[in-house]
Amino acid sequence: MNSLSHKEQSTITRGIIKAAVLMSEYGAESILIEQTAQRLGKVLGASSVEISLIPSAIVLTTLYHGQSVTTTRRVHHKPINMRIVCAIQNIVLKMEKKESEVNYDIDYLYTILKQLEANYYNRWLVIFMVGLSCMSFAFLQGGDSMALLTTFCASSIAMFVRQELSKKRFVMIIVFGITAFVATLIAGLSKIYGLSSTPNIAMAASVLLLAPGFAFVNSFLDSFKGYMMMGWGRWMDGMILTLATSVGIIIAIALLS
């Protein structure tokens, strides 16, 4: 592209920030979002791209021969999905290499981004695998056979509850609190009725599906790489979800006396 009009630059800016917002919503690391935006700007003809990231929004500016266009978009956090992040990375690579006769311009970027859809696993497979993973943890901690069975049932049912609440668009804090309550309540029955000699292991293992590990990992990575605002934001997200989980567990234990 030899020259950019203000209208063309505005269109390019909106396309770049759309890709950046998608990556942020689905859990990409901050430095990856910034690098992707800058690479897109370069391949689309902008002189440079400046981006500011906070947990709830993205501010992006494209520069072209002293002409600047700035836009802001709000970030709505969604379940982590690396398929979207990888797909956007593949788009950038194709646009940079230009290996085929396809016209890799801003229209191509808009078209591909509209076609992107999150690829979710079968919900029943997820429920089964979550139950199996929590049961495996109980096994590693020395739980007896009834504790393993209780853990599998409690975590599987809790995962089903979590999916249903998420489908109805409940706030994530409420989802985590109710899910922890259900898991602890079911696992606690093994102690009340004496079904297992290691009921505490079952109660601890059944709520592992709520560990916000991705949020904490991303928060540390962002902080170490200089994105302090994003790091603190993601760390607080993880802490709040952990607090909600703890409240659900405490209520269930208090109810079971």
UniProtKB/TrEMBL annotation:
The record's annotation in InterPro entries points to: ThrE-like_N (IPR010619), ThrE_Dicarb/AminoAcid_Exp (IPR050539)
* Entry-linked Pfam families: ThrE (PF06738)
Keyword DNA repair: yes or no? no
Domain Threonine/serine exporter-like N-terminal per the UniProt entry, residue ranges: 16-255
Cell compartment(s), UniProt: Cell membrane
Coiled-coil residues are none
The membrane-spanning stretches of this chain are: 120-140, 146-163, 170-189, 201-221, 233-256
Which family would the database say this protein is a member of? Belongs to the ThrE exporter (TC 2.A.79) family.
UniProt protein name: Inner membrane protein YjjP
Q: Does the keyword Membrane apply?
A: yes
